[in-house]
Automatic annotation (TrEMBL):
EC class of the enzyme, as a word: transferase
Pfam families: ketoacyl-synt (PF00109), Ketoacyl-synt_C (PF02801)
Functional summary from the UniProt entry: Involved in the type II fatty acid elongation cycle. Catalyzes the elongation of a wide range of acyl-ACP by the addition of two carbons from malonyl-ACP to an acyl acceptor. Can efficiently catalyze the conversion of palmitoleoyl-ACP (cis-hexadec-9-enoyl-ACP) to cis-vaccenoyl-ACP (cis-octadec-11-enoyl-ACP), an essential step in the thermal regulation of fatty acid composition.
EC number: 2.3.1.179
MF terms (GO), sorted A to Z: 3-oxoacyl-[acyl-carrier-protein] synthase activity
Organism: Paenibacillus thalictri
Identification of the protein by name: 3-oxoacyl-[acyl-carrier-protein] synthase 2
Reactions catalysed, as given in the entry: a fatty acyl-[ACP] + malonyl-[ACP] + H(+) = a 3-oxoacyl-[ACP] + holo-[ACP] + CO2; (9Z)-hexadecenoyl-[ACP] + malonyl-[ACP] + H(+) = 3-oxo-(11Z)-octadecenoyl-[ACP] + holo-[ACP] + CO2
Active site positions: 164 (for beta-ketoacyl synthase activity)
Keyword Lipid metabolism listed: yes
Domain Ketosynthase family 3 (KS3): 2-409
Amino acid sequence: MKQRVVITGLGVMTSIGRDLETFWGSLMAGKSGVSEIEAFDVSEYPTRIAASIKDFNPEEYVDKKEARRMDRFVQFAVAASLNALKDANLNVKEDTDPERVGVYVGSGIGGLSTWEEQHKILLEKGPKRVSPFFIPMMIANMGSGQISMITGAKGPNSTAVTACATGTHSIGDSFKMIMRGDADVMICGGAEATISPTGVAGFCALRAMSTRNEEPSKASRPFDVDRDGFIMGEGAGILILESLEHAKKRGAHIYGEVIGYGMSGDAHHMTDPDPDGAARCMSKAIRDAGIEPSQIDYINAHGTSTPVGDKSETTAIKAALGEHAYKVAVSSTKSMTGHLLGAAGGVEAVICSLALQNGIIPPTINLDNQDPECDLDYVPNVPREADLHIVMSNSFGFGGHNATIILKKYEA
């Protein structure tokens, strides 16, 4: 028998909140987390703004020695996971069989700042001064590895690295693991920390980011005619997924149920999205969920605020949903959080879970002059109360990696 899979815990690390109450309050207030980059000198960069997390102290979650052996993206992954487990009221070692608890937390890029620091040491001081922790700090799977070591989770342990689709792939794969009986609980999502000299320089070279440096809070403007690129964010989004049987047995609070997962490849271009690939991905998720397109009440769009990407996703939604595309509410919360790359899907799945629970759709802020080629209902600027039963979250990554998950209001 296939297991039903429910969401019992949520954790976030973002520029607009590091706890659920603050995070949701910021979304409802339409608050932007974008500001000038302070971590390094950006005076020569075309883009000098990002959705940075300020005043993050990893020692609130792990001891100083452990924190020093983690890249910033791993620190975010661990912090959000511990918060999600606390939200789920679940202690892995005491409340369940640790061998039935897995971890699947991805990162699109991994430990970029560690790489930069150690490369500088190599050039300036020679190979003997490179840290023995360089490789284990930098590799993308270390988020999952450290979470496992800290929590005691001994079940399936893996990592997705699919650019901006990473977080959603991690959640979708975890959903399937529980469904087929490989685990009872999965700690899953994504983490990213690439607001660094090389990371920002690389995306600037791609001409993918906004240069609206004088108006940081208005720079991320998905579906707006004046959008000029995405804003890089950092942080993590983590979900605790459980089999319904396991969750009910321990009396867990249930935010919602995961019912569908789709994935596809564009087979098209490194960075230029093909709407056909995204449309096929959404259609696969709809079929997997066993629903009709007309049953979807809300879509949390990938919606990065790039001229090409937003138009492509709009085309894809129309192809996948047909006439219902004009009736469904769509919003891009990246207008507030920035684009967290590999962590985006995790954060946005948290948002979808909270939207289901609260019956409120978060807005797309800065949507002042809607692009005529982006002609759907993007919930501009203010949140909207809605009777939500089924919601969809899209994530599309460089390389043509597409992932979609579908969540449903929990019904016993």
